[in-house]
Specification:
The structure is a single chain. By secondary structure, the chain is of the alpha+beta class. It folds into 2 domains: about 10-145, OB fold (Dihydrolipoamide Acetyltransferase, E2P) (Beta Barrel), CATH 2.40.50; about 155-245, OB fold (Dihydrolipoamide Acetyltransferase, E2P) (Beta Barrel), CATH 2.40.50.140. Helices cover about 15% and strands about 30% of the residues. It is built from 4 helices and 15 strands. Strands 9, 10, 11, 12, 13, 14 and 15 form a 7-stranded mixed beta sheet that branches. The chain has a 5-stranded mixed beta barrel with strand order 1-2-3-6-5. β10 (about 175) and β11 (about 180-185) form a beta hairpin.
Amino acid sequence: MFLPEKADFSDLALTGDGQVQEVLGPLRLRLTDGRIVQLSSLHIPDLTPYDGGDISLAAQALLTEMLTNKQIRIYQTKRDDKGRQNRMGHLLAQIEVKNGELWVQGLLLKNGLALIMPTKDNIEMSAQMSALEQEARASQIGMWADDGYTVYTPETASEGLNSWGIVEGTVRAAASVRNTYYLNFGTDWKTDFTIGIPSDIRRTMSAHGIDLALFTGRRVRVHGWLESYNGPYIELFSPAWIEVLPDESQSSTLPAENN
């Protein structure tokens, strides 16, 4: 088992605490007061509503060992009008174990037992989470020891349609069409892998000195929901999800996340 370093929760609000009564699954906790907490911004690829594979079972076993009967702190988005509950009324939160100050999401990522999968309402910890996922992937820990959990290339991105994925490749061309900036990874924009950057995200990136024109010819890594739109496509919803990679290196620069 690998333990993450102490997390920085300053972008979140400390909204409460509690004691874990039971680990209901690899992403859900029941507290002694009856509340159910859903670990936000994570995805376990072999977890289904009916069963769990080796990764999800290992994640649940680790949480059971580390959290049962433990006192925890509950951190949530500072916006109190959205992003704090799911449709079932469960709390959406980042969790820290008291005293030991163990970041629970970080624990799963550090051990290769989860993928980052934030929503637009819960992106505050994305840079810290991305770094831990990348570390586990580079060390081939947990799921990353299995070739089935891979980073897609532009040529294989279609294999991950309708799921959260990571794609690495070289931007071949860029174009701005109807307020969306497109990064194309092939010669045929109708079939190749493409990243779409909406105007609001483009403005945010520009305000932080990120020149999209300089992406052409650079190798990048992007995280996002893979869908079909003139070939496999990811719409960027935060600058935190696109990384510029040095040639032949796993190190990267990750633009500062912006809410």
